[in-house]
Design brief:
- With about 400 residues, the protein is mainly beta.
- Among the domains are: about 40 residues, no CATH class; about 100 residues, no CATH class; about 80 residues, Beta Barrel (Thrombin, subunit H).
- The protein is about 0% helix and about 55% strand.
- The protein has no helices and 42 strands.
- The protein has a four-stranded antiparallel beta sheet, with no helix packed on it.
- It is flat and about 65 Å long.
């Protein structure tokens, strides 16, 4: 018997050879994924369906693909056509589209490889299929890509454009402002409420926090040569004022701190622009769960919000390291992936293999991909919960 923990409840999965059953049900599956919001995607004979925590099969194993999509499921039939069901398994959008992306009651769809539009849950067109690409609506706006030029913009439900000038790729947005990059290398800051725009002669314009926008300088690199330095300039949206800082690089604020760099050395400032952790690192990350990765004296290390070192790789054994998630950070050595806690203690010795350089817990589980076909999950006890090979899910 194996326990599959979904944060709020424990579900019982019985493994019989290479097959799985749930709660002693007579239904036998080739694979069962960890439950997400009370649902698990299961497979049988190369087809996929969904069960709930009561063991009921709400979507039979008849589809080539099933994906979680918020409060719905995206389904794909044997012809490669995608549709949408609700959590009771009722079909909302028939599987008739080659592409479908769902969010908050709307779906971006297309019949072929382009000609994207947006439909509601009654499969009625809100936005006609005239775009090269599109996304569902979020916070009243949907991203669209223009045919021929491949430039981007945002539209409301009436189809009206957000930006006067079409931009390159998606914009960065907060509740009241949006930042877009223009074809000529400039950027635009748009007030979503008044539609007033400010243009900047920089492609590095970015939100540093909810009220600060980087308008000059960089958040991408740190030149060490003084002749290349460009001082940081920030625009304070709330106070309509500009602030200049004598740093080469600044990263977004997290937990009230932002990593800054001058002449190749990194430290951290607070939201009053005071240097509270000295410029002494050769590399520094944003804080995640009150911890940040830095390089100090050529050693990878983890610091807390006060700059105290809680973990240091003095033997230079690390190949990779990842940000903290659900209280632990993944580290990779020659022996594989393991985990350290927020005190820097190794709570799981390196042992797991993964082809991905991004390893993190999410919803109580960490998913490892070893090769293109083998996948397995571990829980916070660092025990393998579900392990399956894609070949086991293919029909004979």
């Amino acid at each position: 018997m194996q326990l599959l923990d979904d944060l709020n409840a424990t579900y019982q999965i019985q493994m019989e050879g290479q097959k799985f059953s749930y709660l002693g049900s007579e239904n036998i599956f080739d694979s069962i994924t960890p439950f997400t919001n009370g649902y698990s995607i299961v497979s049988s004979s190369g087809r996929f369906g969904v069960i709930n925590t009561a063991g009921e099969q709400i979507i039979p194993c008849i589809y080539d693909l099933v994906e979680f999509a918020e409060d719905c499921f995206i389904i794909q039939n044997e012809n490669g056509r995608k549709g949408l069901t609700d959590q009771a398994g009722r079909i909302l959008i028939e599987p008739s589209y080659s592409e479908l992306d769902y969010h908050d009651g709307t779906a971006a769809v297309c019949y072929w490889w382009s000609d994207f539009g947006i439909v509601d849950l009654n499969d009625q067109l809100i936005i006609p299929m005239i775009y090269e690409n599109a996304s569902p609506f979020e916070n009243g706006w949907a991203w669209v890509q223009e045919k021929d030029t491949y430039l981007s913009n945002y539209i409301d439900r009436n189809g009206d454009l957000l930006f006067t000038d079409w931009i390159i790729g998606p914009a960065s947005m907060n509740d009241n402002y949006a930042i877009g990059d223009l074809e000529n290398g400039n950027s635009i800051l748009l007030n979503l409420n008044t539609k007033e725009s400010i243009y900047y002669r920089s492609a590095d314009v970015a939100f540093i926090n909810s009220r600060l926008v980087l308008t000059e300088g960089s958040y991408l690199f740190s030149p060490k040569d003084d002749t290349e330095r460009k001082p940081i300039k920030l625009y304070d949206i709330m106070n309509d004022a500009y602030i200049s800082l004598e740093y080469d690089t600044i990263q977004p604020f997290t937990f009230g701190l932002a990593a800054v760099c001058s002449k190749g050395k990194w430290g951290y400032i607070n939201e009053d622009y005071e240097l509270v952790i000295p410029l002494k690192y050769t590399r520094a990350s944003q804080f995640s769960e009150e911890r940040a990765w830095v390089v100090l004296d050529n050693n990878e290390a983890v610091i807390d919000l006060h700059g105290n070192v809680v973990f240091c790789d003095k033997e230079n054994a690390l190949i990779n390291s990842c940000v903290y998630s659900e209280g632990v950070a993944a580290i990779e050595t020659k022996d594989g992936w393991g985990f350290i806690n927020k005190d820097g203690k190794v709570v799981c010795e390196p042992q797991y293999r993964s082809d991905s350089n991004s390893v993190a817990f999410q919803n109580g589980f960490c998913n490892f991909f070893e090769g293109p076909y083998h996948s397995y999950y571990i829980d916070h006890c660092f025990q393998t919960i579900i392990e399956f090979d894609i070949y086991d899910t293919l029909a004979d």
